[in-house]
Design a protein that fits this description.
The chain is mainly beta. It is built from seven helices and 22 strands. Helix content is 11%, strand content 29%. The strands form four sheets. Strands 1-9-8-12-13-14-11-10 form an eight-stranded antiparallel beta sheet. Strands 2-3-4-7-6-5 form a six-stranded antiparallel beta barrel.
């Protein structure tokens, strides 16, 4: 909704929280009004409507329509990102390329007697999840919504079906400005088919693209599980059809099939964006606005665990490729075994162990063996959500010190030879207190 003249103030790096209303609930304060989920899907608005400037690309920060969480739009162009929204510049650089934009083909009038009013419209966002598969929102292929008129089957008054809507679109990659603000040359890939659409009633879709763009831009892995409340999320998106931008903020709440975030700005056109968790894997698909300048509001999408349960395609991808499992560790216990000499180099006999917990949930251990012992590979129990590490005894003091003094700590597993305890990001040069 229009909310009067948009502000012209832009955020400087590190001032995101200063721009929020003080009346917004703090993280963890889940007031009832903040938990509404019945918001409409986000479709693009026309410039000049709903509070949008006519020259949107020149005034991207000056929008005050619904789904901006606070008074101004904090999102920044991906290649001009200053690093102050909650994720690093390196994170954005590593994960922005597979994000693309759905756009209607501009030849609809040549194909249909009644082409509607969507020809050439930059429509939604999505993410490559393999060389030729692209994950986005289901409502991007709905036959109605957003006040737009889709093409009709020739000789009828019936809107073309969702499968045909998909093949009348293409995906733009590299639609973004460089570090100097110059628009790069985008690359377009046609949609060949609508592979999955709103399975189990969930607002997601998967389309297959021609030309294997993943071989050029890479693809983003799917998380095997949901993010945790408070985790930093990142949405790389094409809000309102703009060149690619980045926003970030914490996971506010999860409810039934959905996840919510009250500090990540989106707009129509952001729908379908992959919601990235701390490991850079997709933990959800953004679908709905809801934020406003008022308190007690949030944007949301569908959580990855629900999508995995509904999608044979994603289930197959998870089975065919190594997947990162990661848990935020906030508790631990130590065991030092008696009568186990450090001269015994048996890989079956640990001399010390640290047991790791996420809340009250046991997530695995780090066992320590005398230096020189042939160490077994890391093990993941995916059914129980546990990871087991095998380390040298000389690593025990530093591991214990890290658990005592650092926060946050993550336990992760990608493969038998790539598993570890790691810290979160902190500023260089800060001494521990």
């Amino acid at each position: 909704m229009a909310k009067g003249k948009p502000p012209t103030t832009t955020l400087e790096e590190g001032t995101k929280e200063q721009a929020r209303f003080s009346t917004r609930p703090r993280q963890g304060q889940k007031e009832q009004g903040h938990l509404h989920w019945n918001f409409l899907p986000e479709f693009p608005h026309r410039p000049g409507e709903h509070g949008l400037p006519m020259d949107l690309e020149q005034h991207a920060a000056d929008v005050t329509i619904e789904s901006i969480c606070g008074r101004i739009n904090d999102s920044q162009p991906v290649e001009q990102y200053r690093g102050g929204l909650g994720v690093t510049q390196e994170f954005v650089k590593a994960h922005q390329a597979p994000v693309g934009q759905l756009q209607w083909n501009n030849n609809l009038a040549d194909v249909y007697d009644d082409p509607g009013n969507v020809s050439g419209v930059r429509w939604c966002t999505g993410t490559l999840i393999s060389n030729d598969l692209f994950l986005t929102a289901g409502h991007c292929f709905d036959q109605s919504g957003g006040g737009w008129n889709r093409p009709k089957i020739n000789g009828t008054t019936t809107v073309i079906p969702s499968a045909k809507i998909a093949t009348n679109m293409h995906i733009n990659f590299n639609y973004q400005v460089d570090t100097g603000g110059i628009l790069r040359e985008e690359q377009q890939f046609p949609i060949l088919e609508l592979v999955e659409y709103r399975l189990n009633g969930l607002d997601f879709a998967i389309v297959r693209l021609d030309g294997n763009p993943g071989a050029i831009f890479g693809f983003t892995r799917i998380s095997s599980g949901d993010a945790n409340e408070g985790d930093m999320l990142c949405i790389i998106q094409h809000p309102q059809g703009l060149p690619k931008r980045i926003e970030a903020g914490p996971l506010f709440h999860q409810h039934d099939d959905r996840l919510g975030y009250d500090d990540i700005d989106t707009l129509g056109g952001s729908s379908g964006s992959g919601v990235l968790g701390p490991a850079g894997t997709i933990v959800g698909v953004h679908t709905n606005g809801g934020c406003s300048a008022a308190a007690l509001s949030h944007n949301h999408g569908f959580r990855i665990s629900s999508i995995i349960a509904a999608s044979p395609t994603i289930t197959g991808l998870l089975k065919s490729s190594p997947q990162l499992a990661q848990y935020k560790i906030d508790g631990y216990g130590v065991r030092l075994w008696s009568s186990r000499p450090t001269t015994n180099l048996s890989p079956g006999v640990a001399v010390a162990g640290i047991y790791l917990y996420q809340g009250k949930t046991y997530r695995g251990y780090a066992y320590f063996y005398p230096d020189g012992t042939p160490l077994a590979s890391a093990v993941r129990d995916s059914a129980k959500g546990r990871i087991f590490l095998h380390l040298n005894l000389s690593q025990f003091p530093s591991t214990l010190e890290m658990l005592r003094t650092e926060k946050p700590i993550y336990l992760y597993y990608l493969s038998p030879t790539n598993a570890a305890l790691r810290t979160g990001r902190e500023p260089v040069g800060e001494e521990e207190s």
